[in-house]
Design goal:
The structure holds 2 protein chains of 2 kinds. Chain A is built from 10 helices and 9 strands. In chain A, helix 3 packs across helix 4. Chain A is globular, with a radius of gyration of 18 Å. In chain B, a hairpin with a 2-residue loop joins strand 2 and strand 3. The longest helix of chain B is centred in the middle third of the chain and has 31 residues. Classes of the chains: A alpha/beta, B alpha/beta. Chains A and B meet through helix 2 and helix 3 of A and helix 2 and helix 8 of B. The complex binds adenosine-5'-triphosphate (ATP) and magnesium ion (MG).
Chain lengths: 246, 369
């Protein structure tokens, strides 16, 4: 069954056309990367899939259901981390997780599980305001994983992380992939991230899909890696390195 | 307990409470500051203080005054200047001290403008000629007291025997006026800052958006926010009252039940306003502007610190419609006039309805993400 179906979706903000007639389909268990430069429309697209924005035009179905009719049901089966969320500074990691666990009716056991899984054991008593950038990203991931989501949306989960922390996060996600029960939609600027984690890669720019497919199928003699492919498609680089420091 | 612990409402309330008390500023501005204000203003205006008047003589003392000064006043040297100090004891109205200083006309006028002197006296063929601003009540008082004293200087060392019955009854002192006003003001500011600011900040941090992306019940979230705020307000009011009782012996003369109902109504009114103010913006600066725009006029007009009856007649009708006026007047009437259910019925209903209305409008435009 298709987990996510996006058909001919448009979204504009005042004078910016962020998403311009975009369609895609994602199967259960797939790990999908949305790859594109700043302002490509990744966040806008993902937030529409998450039911946090309404498309101006077009339709989005999650497991065949629309957000308008089945919001309550869908909220329980998805997990997400937004591009930038600041959790309440004066709550500890565990208190924050407990709060979000309560929204799903989950208990302390599950809180403990995700703390261990995301490697936050040593920080579970720290106020979130005192966490480092990487720890904060891990907390966001822990919150996203609480309800064992069938569909997980991660918006730039590794932006701003050092290579080591990034690898840690990738390992968590790889373990999730081996579990085989989660569909992942991840946005990123990092070629390696898309290459090492995802089966399906969707390259978008200016609100449209430039190319999509399995990594092997996207590459050919002219484009031996994603960087080259991107240059070939758009005539510009993804500007991976300078953006990565942001 | 285990089941309770993973209930949304419990967790929302608990975390809201923890966040509130972990902010040390909240404790200071919410609890310590109002107590300090009430102590400060209470002491300043309640204690029988010595009134001091400063008088400048632009010529040698007129003959009439000169002899009096020599028999009743002491000559003191302060910073190289000679000053006559005439002290009058009065155990009912408070002691009074007149200080006479010699200076030229130019400096006298400057001193008057700066408020350093109250009246100027010149010599008019041996008689005293008073110069002062007739619109300045302090100057007028100085003139009245001094001219009376010059008429009968002998009374100066005895208590006045004219029939003055001092009314330092409970409920008529300034502190009795102030504390209920401060309680009402505390409710307003703590809800506006506590609820509006929290909502706006969470929206700007995208936390609201993150929360509604889960199956969280929005009504529980709002309820928890308000519940914790109202609970804090109750504690704050209780502490303020406790200190006022301890230091100034403030009493609640009216019905406590009615007071609680009115207190709730006030909380409802300001919660409604807070939600309306913060329903859309995600900029804390904009929020601060709105909160001040709502709070400042009421703080000045609604008679928290001083009675609004000094404002022009036409404006009083409008002032009485302000929610803070209704709340402050209501609490005051219960504290000082022994008011009960009948008297607070109208303000309580009006405040609740007004709050509910603002809340509904606010929710209609509310931006969760
Ligand atoms: N709330 C908004 N109001 C106005 N314009 C917006 C808004 N959100 C996004 N946009 C615009 O829509 C376009 C797409 O933005 P989006 O955030 O989806 O890009 P992105 O691919 O996620 O970029 P990044 O890699 O920087 O996160 C941008 O031009 C952006 O300026
Ligand atoms: Mg983005």
């Amino acid at each position: 069954m298709l987990q996510i179906e996006v058909s001919n979706v448009h979204k504009s903000f005042k004078d910016v056309q962020a998403v311009r007639g975009l369609s895609l389909a994602i199967r259960a268990g797939e790990f999908v990367a949305l790859l594109g430069p700043n302002g490509a429309g990744k966040t806008t697209l993902v937030e529409m899939m998450e039911g946090l924005r309404k498309p101006d035009k077009g339709e989005i179905r999650i497991q065949g259901k629309t957000w308008q009719k089945h919001e309550n049901e869908l909220r329980k089966i998805i997990g997400l981390s937004l591009q930038e969320t600041r959790f309440p500074e004066k709550l500890t990691v565990r208190e924050t997780l407990r709060l979000f666990a309560s929204f799903f009716g989950l208990d302390e056991e599950r809180v403990q599980e995700v703390i261990e899984w995301t490697g936050l054991e040593s920080k579970h008593k720290s106020m979130t305001g005192t966490l480092s950038g990487g720890q904060r990203q891990r907390l966001a991931l822990a919150v996203a994983l609480l309800n064992r989501p069938q569909i997980l949306f991660l918006d730039e989960p590794t932006t701003g992380l050092d290579p080591h922390s990034r690898l840690d996060l990738w390992n968590i996600l790889k373990a999730l992939k081996d579990g085989g029960e989660t569909t992942l939609i991840l946005t990123t600027h990092y070629m390696e991230e898309a290459e090492s984690l995802c089966d399906h890669i969707i390259i978008i720019d200016e609100g449209k899909i430039l190319q999509e497919g399995r990594l092997e199928d996207l590459l050919n003699e002219k484009a031996r890696n994603l960087d080259e492919l991107f240059i070939q498609l758009t005539g510009k680089t993804l500007n991976d390195h300078s953006e990565g420091e942001k | 307990m285990k089941t309770l612990k993973n209930k949304q409402l419990y967790q929302l309330t608990l975390t809201q409470f923890l966040e509130t008390i972990r902010e040390p500023e909240v404790l200071f501005w919410g609890i310590i500051f109002p107590v300090l204000i009430s102590i400060g203003l209470g002491l300043a205006f309640t204690q029988k203080s010595e009134s001091k008047f400063s008088i400048i003589l632009v010529e040698n003392p007129p003959a009439e005054l000169d002899s009096l000064l020599h028999s009743y006043a002491q000559l003191e040297a302060v910073k190289g200047k000679e000053i006559w100090s005439w002290k009058v004891k009065d155990n009912i109205l408070g002691h009074t001290e007149f200080k006479f200083e010699r200076n030229d006309w130019q400096s006298a006028i400057v001193a008057l403008k700066r408020g350093e002197a109250d009246i100027i006296i010149s010599d008019s063929v041996g008689k005293m000629q008073y110069h002062f601003d007739p619109y300045n009540s302090q100057a007028q008082l100085a003139y009245m007291k001094l001219s009376a004293l010059v008429q009968s200087p002998k009374t100066s060392n005895t208590t006045i025997v004219v029939p003055v019955a001092p009314l330092t009854l409970k409920g008529v002192r300034y502190i009795d006026f102030l504390v209920p006003g401060l309680i009402a003001f505390g409710i307003m500011s703590s809800i506006l800052w506590g609820v509006s600011y929290t909502l706006i900040e969470r929206r700007s941090q995208k936390l609201l958006r993150r929360m509604v992306a889960t199956p969280m019940k929005k009504s529980y979230f709002l309820f928890a926010l308000m519940f914790v705020r109202i609970l804090m307000n109750f504690v704050e009011a209780l502490i303020l009252f406790f200190f006022a009782w301890l230091l100034f012996d403030i009493q609640i003369q009216g019905n406590i039940g009615a007071l609680l109902v009115l207190f709730m109504a006030g909380n409802i009114a300001f919660t409604g306003i807070a939600v309306l103010v913060s329903c859309r913006t995600s900029k804390t600066e904009v929020g601060t502007g709105w909160i001040n725009a709502v709070q400042m006029p009421m703080m000045i007009l609604s008679g928290v610190f001083f009675s609004y009856h000094n404002f022009p007649e036409w404006s009083i009708r409008i002032i009485k419609l302000l929610p803070l006026t209704a709340l402050a007047d209501g609490i005051r009437s219960i504290f000082n006039e022994g008011a009960g259910w009948m008297e607070i019925m109208t303000p309580s209903v009006a405040l609740s309805v007004f709050g509910a209305l603002c809340f509904v409008i606010g929710m209609k435009f509310f931006k969760w993400y």
